[in-house]
């Protein structure tokens, strides 16, 4: 028996819809083992359980009773979970969305590591990319985090497109309030906006294995664009495949997935993870998806 086997486990989990293929559990458990921890990470798939966001109060209560250190939260619960928490980190409060909950001293503390996760991936993979005008597809919880990251990273004007135009305008207004007039606007003509954009970022769930397709007609893509997608299962979405065919520089969702997990691991365990090691492990998982079956 090793020392790791004798340690009490650190329990964590992921709540979301259609997460059977998520690589997050494997990333956390592998990094926990490498760090000498017994980290047990479970999926709580709302689709598999026949539940929706309305079940969040019961799920959070159950996790507390079972001694979980914390939970990751993903689509479609990042905003719905906020009223159920006792406190928010400054990032989560600014975004109005939570992707990580820590249970601490009888309290539920909401955090958001999506913003820092996307920003780190963007800096590493799209260094030097033009940032004058960017079209963002999706204004939900993940979209709020990415919008903050893009404007923090120097995007001049962010054009927010969403099937819910009210939500797009609300996010754009929030970005203007924080970053200044002219820094964000709601999209009124997607084709016209993409035609003059430097980059496009998909922050919708479209492209996931459970929601195949592209959020942007391929005919709108042009070689002067860079294209990023936060979806990572599959790692090559239909949008990215079409973008590469059009000659665009691309960023897949793997980097954001890893770097948000780096932040969540730190919050759950109090241990500093090895980001380079987690990137290598994610690459291994992406090359061998059958391991997740």
TrEMBL record:
Domain of life where this protein originates: Bacteria
Entry EC no(s): 1.1.1.25
Active-site residues, record numbering mapped to chain: 78
Stretches assigned to the Shikimate dehydrogenase substrate binding N-terminal domain: 14-101
InterPro entries per UniProt: Aminoacid_DH-like_N_sf, NAD(P)-bd_dom_sf, SDH_C, Shikimate_DH-bd_N, Shikimate_DH_fam
All copies of domain SDH C-terminal, residue ranges: 255-280
Catalytic reaction equation(s): shikimate + NADP(+) = 3-dehydroshikimate + NADPH + H(+)
Enzyme class: oxidoreductase
Pathway note: Metabolic intermediate biosynthesis; chorismate biosynthesis; chorismate from D-erythrose 4-phosphate and phosphoenolpyruvate: step 4/7
Secretion signal, residue range per the UniProt entry: none
Binding residues annotated for shikimate, in chain numbering: 22-24, 74, 99, 114, 232, 260
Annotated residues for binding of NADP(+): 138-142, 230, 253
Keywords carried by this UniProt record: Amino-acid biosynthesis, Aromatic amino acid biosynthesis, NADP, Oxidoreductase
Transmembrane segments: none
NCBIfam families: PRK00258.3-3, PRK12549.1
Family named by the database record: Belongs to the shikimate dehydrogenase family.
Physiological role: Involved in the biosynthesis of the chorismate, which leads to the biosynthesis of aromatic amino acids. Catalyzes the reversible NADPH linked reduction of 3-dehydroshikimate (DHSA) to yield shikimate (SA).
Entry protein name: Shikimate dehydrogenase (NADP(+))
Source organism of this protein record: Roseomonas fluvialis
Higher taxonomy: Bacteria, Pseudomonadati, Pseudomonadota, Alphaproteobacteria, Acetobacterales
Name of the gene encoding the protein in the UniProt record: aroE_1
């Amino acid at each position: 028996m090793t020392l790791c086997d004798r340690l009490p486990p650190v329990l964590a989990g992921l709540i979301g819809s259609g997460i059977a293929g998520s690589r997050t559990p494997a990333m956390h458990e592998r990094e926990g083992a490498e760090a000498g921890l017994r980290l047990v990470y479970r999926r709580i798939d709302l689709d598999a359980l026949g539940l929706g966001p309305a079940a969040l109060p019961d799920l959070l209560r159950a996790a507390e009773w079972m001694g979980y250190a914390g939970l990751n939260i993903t689509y479609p619960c990042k905003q719905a979970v906020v009223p159920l928490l006792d406190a928010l980190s400054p990032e989560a409060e600014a975004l109005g969305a939570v992707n990580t909950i820590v249970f601490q001293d009888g309290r539920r503390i909401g955090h958001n590591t999506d913003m820092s996760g996307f920003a780190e991936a963007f800096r590493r993979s799209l260094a030097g990319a033009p940032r004058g005008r960017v079209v963002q597809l999706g204004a939900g919880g993940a979209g709020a985090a990415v919008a903050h990251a893009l404007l923090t990273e120097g995007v001049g004007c962010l054009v927010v497109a969403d099937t819910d135009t009210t939500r797009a305008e609300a996010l754009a207004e929030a970005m203007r309030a924080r970053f200044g007039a002219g820094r964000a606007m709601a999209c009124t003509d997607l084709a016209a906006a993409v035609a003059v954009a430097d980059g496009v970022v998909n922050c919708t769930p479209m492209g996931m294995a459970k929601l195949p397709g592209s959020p942007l007609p391929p005919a709108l893509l042009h070689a002067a664009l860079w294209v990023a997608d936060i979806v990572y299962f599959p790692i090559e979405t239909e949008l990215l495949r079409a973008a590469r065919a059009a000659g665009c520089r691309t960023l897949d969702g793997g980097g954001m997935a890893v770097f948000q997990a780096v932040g969540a691991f730190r919050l759950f365990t109090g241990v500093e993870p090895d980001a380079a090691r987690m990137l290598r492990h994610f690459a291994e998982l992406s090359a061998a998806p059958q391991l997740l079956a």
